[in-house]
Amino acid sequence: MRRFALAATAAAMLAQPAAPAFAQQRGPASVADLAEGLLEAVVNISTSQNRGAGGSDAVPMPRLPEGSPFQDFFEEFFRDRGGNNQPRRVQSLGSGFVIDAEQGIIITNNHVIADADEIEANFSDGSKLKAELVGRDTKTDIAVLKVDPTLKQLKAVQFGDSNAIRIGDWVMAIGNPFGLGGTVTVGIVSARNRDINSGPYDDFIQTDAAINRGNSGGPLFDMDGNVIGINTAIISPSGGSIGIGFSIPSELAVNVITQLREFGETRRGWLGVRIQPVTDDIAESLGMARAEGALVAGVTKGGPVDNGVLEPGDVILRFDGRPVREMRDLPRIVADSPVGKEVDVVIVRRGEEQVVKVTLGRLEDGEEMAEGGAGEGEEGGAVATASVLGMTIGELDDAARAQFGILPEVSGVVISEVTPGSAAADKGIAAGEVITEIAQESVSSPQQVIDRIAALREQGRRNALLMLSSKTGELRFVTLRMD
């Protein structure tokens, strides 16, 4: 009997599925204690805007015949509604959180306080304080506010490390959805590094913790009570949460907030290049083992690297020790770097990896500067026009410049016609563009284009890498199949 019992037990154990290699953990039993300790630091942001008469959404009083029996009625109605050229006040609501109790510093979204004439912070105990704007950044949608800390004892929260957060980790959002007041929601990190095309530095944390209208500017906490994100945007056909919300990661926010507090504005690093993605075709044309990095498509005239240290056709792989895995990584890394800093940049140039040193300028000083400018090519050529790779090309003479409006500083070989359905047409090449380089060598005549393509074919290349210039000098790279 004993032997049978043991055998039966052993058989039952064998019949059970093997335990997974990782421990199964349920969600937190409760976040009540955590939320209780954080609610005081989260505020509701109330703003008001004075709008003068005649706004686009104002309804004018109808014109009535003199002496009409309805005249008194309509005059009273529109006077009460703020019509009849009376100024009106428009209010909006959002969220924010205190990060410095001694200085009275509050963080929120820029779009929460944009165009506001008055800003007020409403605390969980019902008290209210007037807030003033310290600084704002439209590119990351962050604003820094300040209240008088002598009027109320404040409680602050601190930023955590958003890089340490993992997909599937529990997070908690506190905010002011639909103007209801302090509301706590819990969910997980659904994804990281989301690009929702809202700005040049998109790198959002995606969460399914309920975020609704009015949550904007509120904090996203980890389970240690640290702020790892600023709730900013949602995807919602209905206007309510469908479990897709986005938060600015603390890694990106902290540097912006520090600059806004110190200077009242951002001071981002600036490299002064135009970039485009490295596709598989481009990587093959450049002899790279895989598609990675950011391809320099143009250099800003008068910018930090307008001294030849970087050239169109360079592929940036690392910047100041940080990897550039894809094109959109580079703007964020450069922007986070101090103005005036000399950094090492790892590039691939003409198939060889090398390190160059660049000194960063300030982005805000160079945003209005014109980009581009192609290198000068050699004069001469054996043919005036030619047909190659689905394009009709010709000399860039005065007649061609006048025909297509090409600026004097642009040099190369003009494309006068593109064959419909050709590989060139499929890549969006258009008449009036100028071929400035092929396989990173300058061309200035149709004959040089023919010779360069013939040489590439002799080398066994299947793609030709073309650098094209617009009529105003903006550069881009395109690869064309030669078979």
Automatic annotation (TrEMBL):
Substrate binds at residues 111, 141, 214-216. GO terms for cellular component: periplasmic space. The keyword Transit peptide does not apply. It comes from the Bacteria. Residues 260-351, 357-483 form the PDZ domain. One of its GO terms (molecular function) is serine-type endopeptidase activity. One of its GO terms (biological process) is proteolysis. InterPro entries: Chloro_Bact_Ser_Proteases, PDZ, PDZ_6, PDZ_sf, Pept_S1C_Do, Peptidase_S1_PA, Peptidase_S1C. Its EC number is 3.4.21.107. This is Probable periplasmic serine endoprotease DegP-like.
